[in-house]
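step 3/5: co-fold with histidyl-adenosine monophosphate
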Amino acid sequence: MSRLKKIETDKDSSGVKKPRKGRKEMINVTGMRDILPQDQKYWQAVSKVAEKVADDYGYGRIETPILEYTEVFARGIGKQTDIVEKEMYAFEDSGGDNLAMRPEGTAAIIRSYIQHGMINQIQPVKLFYAGPMFRHDKPQSGRYRQFYQFGYEAIGEPNPALDAQLILMGWNCLNELGLESVVQVNSIGCPTCREEFKKALVKYYKPKTKQLCESCQRRLIKNPLRLLDCKEEGCQKFKDGAPQILDYLDEECKKHFMKVLEYLDELDLPYVLNSQIVRGLDYYTRTIFEYWSNDDSEGKSAMGGGGRYDGLAEILGGRENTPGVGFSMGMDRIVSKLREKEINVTETYQPEIFVAQLGESAKKKTFVVYEKLRKKGFKVAQAFYKDNLKTQLELANKLKVKFTLILGQKEVGEGTILVRDMEGGIQEVVDFNKIENDIAKRLDKWHQQKLEKFTAPEEGDMPEVRPKGEKRAKDLEDFNDEADSNFEGAYGGGDAMFSGDNEDY
Ligand code: HAM
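step 4/5: write tokens
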């Protein structure tokens, strides 16, 4: 208890744990965290949907290294961006190379596209990726220094239909997870029309310089587009009167954007035309978009974002006019939304059988049974390191398995094994050599019964409803009482048989 308290008092103002001076206990690096086994079900649910969407739309998986030459990101994302200027984990390695831990995936993927001559494949080359990204940002809720993204990039095709389809794919990812989102869409045109827009922005904001936050004062000089993206209250009030990018789009950019919107209308997808989103990376051209949760009206914690980047390949040394479009989703934020909304995701590992043993010779045999069942694809659990049968059965109960196979000295001698139905508490003796077939049949029957339960019962034919946990707990209680008095007899052993039982083993 004192340790817990101690950790709690060691949080900084943003709620992030910090190591206390002089204390020996080690903790994770600020802004980075462990994803524990109990949280994996959320992460796996997100990964599964991401992979399914990649399959559905024909995106092949690509892995790029965590480390790239710093230049890939500096040139790709833009030297004036917050990511490159302030947030990159960049260093010189012992060989004198300037390297950076990837802050995002797109620039590295384009580097790979160029390096491996993917331009010679059928275009667009459609790539899917997932993994950790690193940004040395101020840690706060929904913002980590190691965070996880999955994303999709379609390289080599300028058609606006592709923009619309990618926007839909991201929305589908969230929708399949049960999350409602509104897509924010904008166009920032090509570099030519953007230059005019930037000038107009500077003209509008310059007289207000003193009222702007420190970052915006810097943005005014270095990256005026980002002025529109500021979430500071003091700066927000100027946004409404600011020039609108859509008024500065040239004919081609306007045509492209109108087409994207037409396709989106056709898709009947909830989107908002938001002229104030600009994105924080310099490589974008034309369409940009973000996914905001339907309860996040200001986009303070966007779940994903992306856009078109028709000039990126060229910036990274590739062929001129290599178009590209894509997006990535923030897995950390999606997981936290799933939790916040209490969305049920299925357990990643739910064993159906537990193999329990009592006595040394039985333990040896259960090793074999366990391996046989596991290899046949049964979902099976065990605790061979526990000698106490009651402890094993308690664990089986906690794991909510349907059947526990019990092997004791008596069963080993007789060539049998006990099959205990954990819900009903009924035990049956089965021939040891037939256990695989026997348990397969029992599980089939059980799955069938579960399916049948989905069909509505006849009126007046409602079964007594008893919470499963309560029933299991009650059964276990009965079983344990029974076990205390009967095990000895049931297994034909004497006190000596239990002498090896050791909770602390
Ligand atoms: P981004 O908007 O920087 O875009 O990141 C995409 C998503 O990653 C964000 O919407 C957010 O959910 C998540 N994210 C970003 N930073 C953090 C953080 N510090 N902690 C937790 N989550 C974070 C890109 O990265 C572009 N590469 C997207 C793209 C792909 N554009 C074209 N293709």
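step 5/5: annotate
Residues 104-106, 135, 137, 142-144, 147, 149, 151, 153, 280-281, 302-307, 326-328, 330, 332-333 surround histidyl-adenosine monophosphate (CB under 6 Å).
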